Amino acid sequence: MSVSDAIDTRNSGRPEPVTTSVGLAAVETASRPRRRERRAMRILPPLVVGLLLLGLWQLVTATGSVRAYLLPLPADVARAFWRGTESGLFWRYGRTTLQESLAGFALGVAVAVPLGYGIARSRMLARAIEPFVAASQALPAIAIAPLLVLWMGYGLRTVAVLCAFIVFFPMVVNTAVGIRTLDREILDAARVDGAGFWPLLLNFELPLALPVIMAGLRTALTLSITGAVVGEFVIGDRGLGGLLTVARGNFDTPLAFATIAMLMLLASIMYGIAWLLEQAVSRRF
Questions:
Q1: Which of 116, 190, 267, 282 could lock 176 by a disulfide, CB 3.0 to 4.6 Å apart?
Q2: Cβ-contact 179, 212 below 8 angstroms
């Protein structure tokens, strides 16, 4: 028995809507302009705001209201970004940041998803664990990083653990919420049909909770970049966080801004990939 079978069981006896191919084609044709309008409305507002901020930045720096070593010209930042991209500098440092963030993301998800499921299904476990899960958010990552270096030394493993710590909380919460908000009637119908623990988990609970879990994955994947950069600040010479430290030490403000732009671009790409994956999963289930 699958999710669709259980839903069919619930909805048995309800009249099926009557549709025709002509009607569907007409609806599809009428909806195309609306879809284009929605896409434009998603792109246009952030584009306008970005251009306005860029124009304000240019105005402030060009008039000398702020000194160049504090806020460089946008053109200087663009040149530094181009040089860093063309020379492979951002790739060499960014590759390390990407490896650390993905390793920490995988570790955090591997721990958080089973724990979130256990919290949702066991009141005893929830009472025992939830206070510590909530308290973990009061610990700043920048304070934990030196301790991890003392315990584990320098290297990718230390930064990955710090990333996992940052990823952990949103994944636990989303998994627990996704499982707790499932339709009880569908689960009860599956149990009546003889579904045990594993069939219930794999065929019902996981597919139904997947949209909420995937939303948590999207947030966690972006936050893993933050964890990597925090760890690199402590270690000092690794990844894009280390490059920021070098630029700050050399008073190279354009390079510092260009590195921040690369971090934003990397986080946006990861967010976009996670969003596309979430959409694909939503259509599948």
A1: 116
A2: no
Among 66, 89, 105, the domain-final residue is 66
| Furthest-apart CA atoms within the chain: distance in Å | 75
| Residue 211 DSSP code | H
Tokens of 19: 């549709």
For the chain, what's the residue count? 285
Domain boundary among 66, 84, 106: 66
d(CA 211, CA 199) in angstroms, rounded, equals 19
pTM of the complete model? 0.78
Structural domain span for residue 41: 16-66
Please calculate the CA angle 221-281-222 and round it to the nearest 5 degrees. Answer: 10
Question: Is the residue at 182 inside a domain?
Answer: yes
The structural domain count of the chain equals 2
- What are the tens digits of pLDDT across the range 230-276? 888 887 668 899 899 889 888 899 999 999 999 999 998 988 888 88
Q: How far apart are CA 54 and CA 280, in angstroms?
A: 34
Q: How far apart are CA 127 and CA 122, in angstroms?
A: 9
For the CA atoms of 53, 142, 229, 218, the dihedral, rounded to the nearest 10 degrees, stands at -80
